[in-house]
Amino acid sequence: MKRHVVSTINGDSMEFLCDAGDTLLDVLRNQLQLTGSKEGCGSGDCGACSVILDDRLVCACLVLAVETNGRQVDTIEGMARGDKLHPLQQRFLERGALQCGICTPGILVAAKSLLERNPDPSESEVRYWLAGNLCRCTGYDKIVRAVLEVASESKERNAR
Amino acid sequence: MRYETPVSIADAVALLQGSPARGQILAGGTDLIVQMRSGAANPQLLLDIKHIPETRRIEFSDGRFEIGAAVSGAELNENEAFKTTWPGVAEAFDLIGSTQIQGRATLGGNLCNASPAADTVPALIAADAVCRIAGPDGERQVPAESIITQPGRTSLAAGEFIVSIRFPRQMNRTGDAYLRLIPRTEMDIAVAGAGVCLTLDSEGRCATARVALGAVGPTPLLVNDAGAALIGSRLEAAALDSMAEAVAAACRPINDKRGTIDYRTRVAAVLARRSALMALNRAENRT
């Protein structure tokens, strides 16, 4: 029997039908055409499917779609405001903090969730927070720099 | 597969009773959903217990904590009072997985997944935590060390589930600690782990001590001889040596890619020493 689920995805109320065993990632990608969240491992190890579920960073592959009924899901698709990129997205582009790009949506969502909780993280806090987002291209350094730059920029902005 | 979200313990018990054999509890899903995907788990009924208020609460009354079985690691580690009172348990939980896993993983799940290497379990055993279990015959309480019976198996009967984990009233001059070894700093499974909780008397001597180990046997182990070796001491070298001997004697590890039997046994003893000294330091600072 298909389940009827209503959840708020990137601020919009969305309805879908799914099987009880379908993961949130399955539904996002295959039904709602929100393919920004990537499937890397499917077992919660790589973080490529990171989304925010009611203010908690989670792997969409480790959440059942039915569990999101009545809840709020934020994905990479909700990060830019129209044509205006989120500061993290902009800085990742400027600093070349990506190569193949598969891990990038998950890392951006994870970094956004970090800065919302901790607007001024240390380098070590950034590295620990992102430890569940694997990147096999960049060696992480440009990613960590980009996140720290966005944090210090917004700190300066707030100080002005 | 059916998916149900009972809102009370009684509803959950009734659903489990009315179900064919393969009812399965869903809390954080960080182990279960992976097992379902690989085919290792194939439940006919999935019971999501996160809508039962008792499984989601962090309660503190009469000096005792009671932590809902479905409270996530992130939630527990944001509770400053819990972290101050049971730093060893909080740290053990925080060692598990990534930020993403912390957002979902639960104490009840770590117990019931029944891995020999489950990081919270030695810390819970050392803390003398007790599980509140609901089932068709009512409720019962089971010490943390009696939950896991073999890898992937628990002592819970059909239709039973863990509602919450209850901690003893924490006394003055008590401290706990948990340490594990992994080959890197994050995102791995313990090669060995050791949790210690001890209480000092007014003279600074160990009045009670519990030592528990992970990843060095088919289940996490409570090592009574190791705790006993510390009683009456101020954790001088001789007492620590005899505790370490008892730890090594209790280890029954396997050889695998994470470590050999010999390595795990030695490391468990080292970790138990260090945990004991951390617990001592914490106990001395909590008067």
Features:
heterodimer; A: 160 residues; alpha+beta; globular; B: 287 residues; 4-stranded antiparallel β-sheet; 12 helices; 14 strands
Q: What layout of secondary structure does this protein have?
A:
The complex is a heterodimer of chains A (160) and B (287).
Chain A: E1 3-9, E2 12-18, H1 24-31, E3 50-53, E4 56-59, E5 72-74, H2 87-95, H3 104-117, H4 123-129, H5 141-159
Parallel strand pairs in A: 1-5
Antiparallel strand pairs in A: 1-2, 3-4, 3-5
Chain B: E1 2-4, H1 9-17, E2 23-26, H2 32-38, E3 45-48, H3 53-56, E4 58-61, E5 64-68, H4 73-77, H5 80-85, H6 87-94, H7 99-102, H8 107-113, H9 120-126, E6 130-135, E7 138-143, E8 148-150, E9 153-154, E10 161-166, E11 174-181, E12 192-200, E13 206-214, E14 221-222, H10 224-230, H11 237-250, H12 261-284
Helix pairs in contact in B: 6-9, 10-11, 11-12
Descriptive report:
- The complex is a heterodimer of chains A (160) and B (287).
- The N and C termini of chain A lie far apart (57 Å).
- In chain A, α2 (87-95) crosses α5.
- A 5-stranded mixed sheet of chain A has the order 2-1-5-3-4, sandwiched between helices.
- By secondary structure, chain A is of the alpha+beta class.
- Chain A is globular and about 55 Å long.
- Chain A has 5 helices and 5 strands.
- Chain B is α+β, with helices and mostly antiparallel strands and 287 residues long.
- Helix content of chain B is 36%, strand content 25%.
- Chain B has 12 helices and 14 strands.
- Chain B has helices at 9-17, 32-38, 53-56, 73-77, 80-85, 87-94, 99-102, 107-113, 120-126, 224-230, 237-250, 261-284, and strands spanning 2-4, 23-26, 45-48, 58-61, 64-68, 130-135, 138-143, 148-150, 153-154, 161-166, 174-181, 192-200, 206-214, 221-222.
- In chain B, the strands form 4 sheets. Chain B has a 5-stranded antiparallel sheet with strand order 4-5-10-6-7. In chain B, strands 11-12-13-14 form a 4-stranded antiparallel sheet, with helices on both faces. A 3-stranded parallel sheet of chain B has the order 1-3-2, covered by helices on one side.
- In chain B, β8 and β9 (153-154) form a beta hairpin.
- In chain B, α10 packs antiparallel against α11.
- Chain B is globular, with a radius of gyration of 19 Å.
- The termini of chain B are far apart.
- The mean pLDDT of chain B is 96.
- At the A-B interface, β4 and α3 of A face α2 and α7 of B.
